[in-house]
């Protein structure tokens, strides 16, 4: 599997959302937009049930680490979740698969990771960006770092334990560090 990138500017983030909706569905655009705001691994993002949402908080146990993710939902994310809930009041999962919805004996399931991965890869190919399921998490981390320059905050948000892991994960390279030294003159 190839390394995917963080999207490093807001215009491209919006373009990806637009292309996902136009070429695939509103549901895939929602996965992208909500995924950006929650910075969860794709397995945790797709496993979100409406029961995991408590007012303006999402509380889930991360499958990879076993850590509890207690995330305050921003207003855009809450609005998207509420719209999805209104449109699909009988769904169990936030991103429930529509396949076989008429079959009563088939248990509800979320969208597949593979489907999301293929859609993001296709959009990435079109935009000449290495996009994948981790791109949402990496993008959130990168943009937070660019806004705050506080790697500790980014580490905490991503629930990483090592600074170098976080820097590598969000795609901070020597060129970015050099640029910071040149642009900040004291």
UniProtKB/TrEMBL annotation:
Keywords: DNA recombination. The keyword Ligase does not apply. GO terms for molecular function: DNA binding. The keyword Disulfide bond does not apply. Pfam families: Phage_integrase. Coiled coil: none annotated. One of its GO terms (biological process) is DNA integration. InterPro entries: DNA_brk_join_enz, Integrase-like_cat_sf, Integrase_catalytic. Residues 2-184 form the Tyr recombinase domain. This is Tyrosine-type recombinase/integrase. It comes from Shewanella holmiensis.
